[in-house]
Automatic annotation (TrEMBL):
SUPFAM superfamilies: Concanavalin A-like lectins/glucanases. Residues 1-15 form the signal peptide. Coiled coil: none annotated. Keywords: Signal. Pfam families: Peptidase_A4. The keyword Lipid biosynthesis does not apply. One of its GO terms (biological process) is proteolysis. The keyword Signal applies. The active site is at 212 (proton acceptor). GO terms for molecular function: glutamic-type endopeptidase activity. This is Concanavalin A-like lectin/glucanases superfamily. PANTHER family: ASPERGILLOPEPSIN, PUTAITVE (AFU_ORTHOLOGUE AFUA_7G01200) (PTHR37536:SF1), PUTATIVE (AFU_ORTHOLOGUE AFUA_3G02970)-RELATED (PTHR37536). InterPro entries: ConA-like_dom_sf, Peptidase_G1, Peptidase_G1_sf. It comes from Pleurostoma richardsiae.
């Protein structure tokens, strides 16, 4: 995969940007400290988020732990009543680095996001977050994005600096519509993406907080090294209005090349989801 920056273009900036892609209608508003500002978009990027890719791991795990080739985080597939309606969480954009077998030409990356229906609904997924990638010159670049599967991942030109605190909020408004909000708390910048008429069908079956190795071109993007971090203030809300922490959610570990590269767990002392680099 080529670097994200090489795929972006500067479109016509508007206060409200509306467009359609693969049968999905979008409207995007960007605000700076509550005041609307112009929105500039890039095209659909040549990488995508997917559901968890199950993988065989030789090390025994507890029943509430999934081993996957691309996800690290937590997934709550058991709403106490009704289905999931929204999910919220925050994270800090980390300084990523090369693994021992990587070079700048590999352009490795990670994605951090919150979403609904990535785990347990095979007909749709709505999510939003950030991507951090090392480009071919060795510099890190960070991007805000959202996705309504089966449509492609979409990016927006939004200032995201390494070390910034980001919040994600995803709401399912119907089986074919929803709202994605990505907030940069450091500079008061936010995008609100309203999604209508999607070709996918949401179920409200799962709420997720995930650090992911994205996919491209029939395989996984090279997975960057990252410092251990967390999703803070994580919660999800059901259609019955119940706000739930991820204390009983499944832990999801990322396993590649015969070893765990990332493990996640709920920290009962802080209420956060700890995401630990283990390689």
């Amino acid at each position: 995969m080529k670097a994200v920056h090489s795929l972006m273009f500067m479109g016509l900036a508007q206060a409200l940007h509306q467009f359609s892609s693969n049968g999905v209608d979008y409207s995007i508003v960007m605000t700076q400290n509550g005041v609307e500002v112009p929105v500039t978009l890039g095209p659909a990027l040549q990488m995508n988020s997917t559901g968890p890719v199950a993988t065989f791991a030789s090390r025994h795990r507890r029943n509430n732990v999934q081993s996957t080739g691309n996800w690290c985080g937590m997934s709550n597939t058991e709403p106490p009543s009704g289905t999931w309606k929204s999910v919220w969480g925050g994270w800090v954009v980390p300084q990523v680095s090369l693994r021992s077998d990587q070079t700048n030409a590999d352009e490795p990356s990670i994605a951090q996001w919150v979403g609904i229906d990535g785990d347990g609904c095979n007909s749709g997924l709505i999510q939003g977050g950030t991507v951090s990638q090392i480009n071919s010159n060795g510099a890190q670049e960070n991007y805000a994005w959202w996705e309504f599967i089966p449509d492609a991942l979409q990016s927006v030109s939004m200032t995201i600096n390494t070390g910034d605190t980001i919040y994600g909020n995803v709401t399912m408004t119907s089986t074919t519509s929803g709202i994605v909000e990505v907030i940069n708390a450091n500079i008061g910048l936010a995008i609100v993406v309203t999604i209508n008429s999607g070709s996918g069908t949401l179920c409200g079956a799962s709420a997720e907080w995930v650090l992911e190795d994205l996919s491209c071109c029939g395989g996984l993007v090279p997975f960057a090294e990252f410092p251990s971090n967390s999703f803070f203030d994580p919660y999800s809300i059901t259609t019955a209005g119940q706000q739930v922490s991820p204390v009983n959610a499944d832990e999801v570990y990322l396993y590649q090349g015969g070893q765990y590269l990332c493990e996640a767990s709920y920290n009962s002392a802080t209420g956060d989801i700890d995401v630990v680099s283990t390689a």
